[in-house]
Amino acid sequence: MLNLRNISITFNEGTPDEKKALRTINLELKKGEFVTVIGGNGAGKSTLMNVISGYLSPDVGDIFIANERVDHLPEYKRSSYIGRVFQDPMAGTAPTMTIEENLAMAYSRDKKRKLQLGVNKKRREMFQEYLRTLNLGLDQRLTAKVGLLSGGERQALSLLMATFTEPNILLLDEHTAALDPARAELITTITADVVKKYELTTLMVTHNMQQALDLGDRLIMMDAGQIIFDVRGEEKKALTIEDLLHEFQRIRGTQLDNDRAVLG
Length: 264
Fold this sequence. Notes:
Elements (H helix, E strand, L loop, with lengths): L1 E10 L7 E11 L4 E5 L6 H9 L6 E6 L2 E2 L5 H4 L3 E4 L13 H9 L13 H12 L18 H13 L5 E5 L7 H18 L2 E5 L3 H6 L3 E6 L2 E7 H5 L3 H23 L1
Parallel strand pairs: 3-8, 3-9, 6-7, 7-8
Antiparallel strand pairs: 1-2, 1-4, 4-5, 9-10
Helix pairs in contact: 3-5, 5-6
């Protein structure tokens, strides 16, 4: 479903601030795979998301979604393939528009644009049905302005908007990090339910290692723009936070030893 081939990108190339943000990334996600991504600040996690979504263009490499090459497409054209939820609950929705207007806008994402949002009786009933799955009472508040919702409600709506058209790829960019623990747990539960229900191919960035272990069927660890650890299935289920920390330190130690050997 998603295939990244030899993706590299460098920021501020040729200057004292040069940084290799992604280094020859090769990554393939099969249909329905749910992959969590961890790594420290500057590891390349958000850059990876931005390259997939089209917000950034790689210097080198190819990107395929559903066997279609998309790296030449701008972000707005790639949006028909991709649903994305950001860390900021204020992003991804229009606060001055109503819940139903936001949903109508998301529903039309992969269709030809029209001057009207097209909130008719049939669509309103459909929106209510989808909102009911959140168990937050939003199905009874279709005409409420989104800007009046709580952070958790807004993030739940963002998640629904990103998924109810069943995109080829769902990108979750630390989408629970800005929420209080109770709301973060709620959104985590809703995420697991929605991804399972629609069998969405999902890539989720998180700083929460326990969340990365609990969700999904595959985990990758990034550092310095590279994928340094990739585990799935029963092996992933058996991991603990201590195991992840140990693996990170082991890999980093090996890399440092190799660097020293090269430098002599």
